[in-house]
Amino acid sequence: MSQYCLILGAKSAMARAIAHKFAGNGYDLILAARNPAEIEADAADIRVRFSRDVKIAAFDATAFQTHQNFWDNLQPKPSVVVCAIGYMPKQQDAEKDTALALTAMHTNFTGVANILNIAANYMEEQKAGCIIGISSVAGERGRASNYFYGSAKAGFTAFLSGLRNRLASSGVHVLTVKPGFVYTRMTEGLPLNPKLTAKPEEVASDIWKAFRKKKNVLYTKWMWRGIMWIIRNIPEWKFKKMKI
Amino acid sequence: MKVTNWGNFPVTEAEVKSFSTQGEAMEAVAGWDELIPRGLGRCYGDSSLGKNILSTLSFNRFLSFDEKTGVLHCQSGVSLEEILNIFVPRGWFPPVTPGTKFVTVGGAIASDVHGKNHHKEGSFRKHVDAITVLTGNGKIVRCTPEENAELFHATCGGMGLTGLILDAVIRLKPIETAWIQQRSIKAPDLETIFRLFSENVEYTYSVAWIDTLARGSKLGRSILLLGEHATRSQLQTSSQKENPYRIPGKRKLTVPFNLPNFTLNNFSIKLFNAFYYGKHPRGEKTALINYDSYFYPLDFIHHWNRIYGKRGFTQYQLVLPPASGYEGVRKVLEHTTRSGYGSFLSVLKYFGPDQGLLSFPMEGYTLTLDFPVSENLMKMLNELDTIVKDAGGRLYLTKDSRMSPAMFRETYAHLPGFREVRKAFSSAGKFESLQSRRLEV
């Protein structure tokens, strides 16, 4: 019986790279996005490339009331769930627009936490499975330049950590992925240092290795672990005056 | 950002965008007054350079594949390398392949690439059933040899000047193994190699490596390389027989930086040529070679173009009709050696009958020479242009970086027809490259 990997937020370049990685390693896929029509071509591509079954489903992180139904309707149930949903609003816009701010926070935290909780309930019962949540280094500390996104990701990281604690005795693996900079639509236009910035394929590769090794927390690229250690340990009186 | 193609000449400053959906493509095209699409940048000159470049590399999905007929539908950013990696193990091969697998399907169509099998199986466009093009007027047009035929024929070989190729339907060919049965024959002079070409037309793949620095009685000495896809019964070792579609992985080398300009010079090239020609036994020999080594001998040296140094190099590829082929090639070789210019990688091939709009191949003999860029090179190449033009031949746009508008106009008889199609779809003025401006297409 083949194993299925569910990828939430399947439209992004990072999700696509992860999908290819899993498909290339023998997993069938369920790709979920707000607008399934937009991922038809990607699904066809994976079917041709890897000769795997690829199902498509509609999923909206902010439509909480649809989440349980969504999970119940998945046939078959995936053994791996990858949450690649993320939305980075323009900080200044979110400061002035409550609706935008709330959308960012629900998309990046409460919405994804809700569906992963539902998945966790199922996996706990099965005593098997894996949840891979893609958070961000931005969640390590709130900065003026990006704290709506950052705080939501901080919440998501804590949520995943809690999930890991809960599911440890059930044999369910929870992996928190913290990317630094990645070349995707989200960062288009930003000045990125190439030595620190990962390509989606590199992130997918790192995630696959961490998945196989059952790691808990993955920084990608690797140097962000050290960078964030430094950032985290700058005393608050100093940090509050910085402009990073 | 700075962009350059395979010859590292010219280097240009351009705004580069990529797209991964049709919607993004339309947005990008509408947002610029002028642009040129670009794939993997394996042309040698300025064909896919311009002030605005639209990269197709993120538009690289496979859309469908029919395992009974080998018909493949894919987006234009898919590379031949990906096609090989995925479909050779399933028993299918690209119908036409140029000397590198690092070209996109869009690029293969826009250059209407040819391979060692042109004399038998034609150029790439012969194996394309349909293409979808985003033209200058913002319309997305599906064209085939029957439907919107003028756009189809203009786009094949059209160097990206008719619009952005979005996706294509191509026919792969079935193979029994991933190996090639190669027969190589030594030819001591030009007359012999010409004779050998005509004596061996029934071979699917045929091309000759030619020593362009040999003079006098040795002028045009070459090695003819003939090939056929190996059948199961031709496989030799038991591991080949068990896995007929698997080939050994190649250890990749890379040229990590530009070598000093003096590395490739007449003396070193002469030395290499003498060695390469000398090590082949007199007469002929046969060998079983995997497809990667047979078709893409240079691909395994990453950045081999850096051997030419920072100055870059230019390729000069000409074709001459059969009647003037022998004399014309002779004149060209004599002229280059007399002027003191040695070509390192030189190839001679026979083309079968062919006539596209802007497509390069036509029946006759095609000779490829490459030269490191230098001051007086341009003057010498202009002199070669005259020889080519007078012999009724023409040059390959995909290799060209310096031809004059007059030379282009006088050797591409179907240019007026091509201009008509561009005008009809509002692509003239919108889809332009440094090359199209230079040649006043």
Kindly describe this structure:
The complex is a heterodimer of chains A (244) and B (441). Chain A is α/β, with parallel strands linked by helices. In chain A, 46% of the residues lie in helices and 16% in strands. Chain A is built from nine helices and nine strands. By secondary structure, chain B is an alpha+beta fold. Chain B has 14 helices and 22 strands. In chain B, the strands form six sheets. Chain B has an eight-stranded antiparallel beta sheet. In chain B, strands 6-7-11-9-10 form a five-stranded antiparallel beta sheet. The radius of gyration of chain B is 21 Å and the shape is globular.
Describe the protein's topology.
The complex is a heterodimer of chains A (244) and B (441).
Chain A: E1 4-8, H1 13-24, E2 28-33, H2 40-50, E3 54-58, H3 67-73, E4 80-83, H4 91-96, H5 98-126, E5 130-134, H6 147-167, E6 173-179, E7 181-182, E8 197-198, H7 200-212, E9 217-220, H8 224-233, H9 236-239
Parallel strand pairs in A: 1-2, 1-4, 2-3, 4-5, 5-6, 6-9, 7-8
Helix pairs in contact in A: 1-7, 5-6
Chain B: E1 2-4, E2 11-13, E3 15-18, H1 22-31, E4 36-38, E5 52-55, E6 62-65, E7 71-75, H2 80-87, E8 92-93, H3 105-110, H4 118-121, E9 128-134, E10 140-143, H5 149-155, E11 164-171, E12 173-174, E13 179-187, H6 190-199, E14 205-210, E15 222-229, H7 238-242, E16 253-254, H8 266-279, E17 284-290, H9 291-295, E18 301-302, E19 313-320, H10 322-338, E20 347-351, E21 364-372, H11 377-390, E22 394-395, H12 405-411, H13 415-424, H14 434-438
Parallel strand pairs in B: 3-5, 4-5, 16-18
Antiparallel strand pairs in B: 1-2, 6-7, 7-11, 8-12, 9-10, 9-11, 13-15, 13-17, 14-15, 14-20, 19-21, 19-22, 20-21
Helix pairs in contact in B: 10-11
